[in-house]
Amino acid sequence: MPLLDVKDLKINFQGRDRVTEAVKGISFHLDEGKTLAVVGESGSGKSVTAMSLTRLLPEPPTCQISGEIFLRGQDVLKMPKRDLRSIRGKEIAYIFQEPSTSLNPVFTVGYQIAEAIKLHVPEERDVPGRVVNALRQVGIRDPEKRYKAYPHEMSGGMQQRVMIAMALACEPKILVADEPTTALDVTIQAQIMELLKELRQKHTMSIILITHNFGIIKDFADEVLVMFRGQIVESGPTEEVLGNPQHPYTKALIACIPRLGAKQHRLTTIDHESLVG
């Protein structure tokens, strides 16, 4: 049985005059210890799919969700609200793309990580020690000192490491990384991706990586889902999808990747109308 099994997921948003179909009946699964990359442009439905896994989206009638989301055999969409708290952060944790907006500026990073531990691991007696250990695991130097630091006292890369420490502090089974390197420079991007790879192996954790960048998934993800306008247009092992893409949209995305030394004056763009037509 897969750790996570999503079947015929549909997500609609109710506007004033019309209903927007954000996700149009997608199905996928995630096995324990594996990494699944969900790739596509902004607006393709990647993030709302990830947020639906723990029902973080607005409640009806603003948002309508149908289908099945089985986490360890239990349908998340049928869970009572009081049970959702036990899986948010404990079973499935999130890292978002803008750590500066995810961290509360008026509390120290240590306090914010400790808050998650107290909520999900109430039996923990040494919360400060667990926080320091979490900061140490993500490569933050002098974690005892950084425990008392505020988010604005850290660089973007350091803030993202804090977000990873917060997500891993409760030892979740699934980590959802939503564009975790978008706001970072290339060197820091590589460091964060390498860190996630090491932590996945250490904790036997499954990862859902949401990205628009094929360049960072080659040596990271086991499988890939390619989303276009709310649908999965191609899926399979990463090596196969990158090496022999079948769908025109996948081919177009890969063609857009800048290549060092390529002799071209303009970047490749995607003709969306031709794909729809």
From TrEMBL:
Any single GO BP term: peptide transport
Cited Gene3D superfamilies: P-loop containing nucleotide triphosphate hydrolases (3.40.50.300)
Annotated signal peptide: none
GO molecular function: ATP binding; ATP hydrolysis activity
Family statement drawn from the similarity comment of this UniProt entry: Belongs to the ABC transporter superfamily.
NCBIfam families in alphabetical order: oligo_HPY
Protein's name in the database: ABC transporter ATP-binding protein
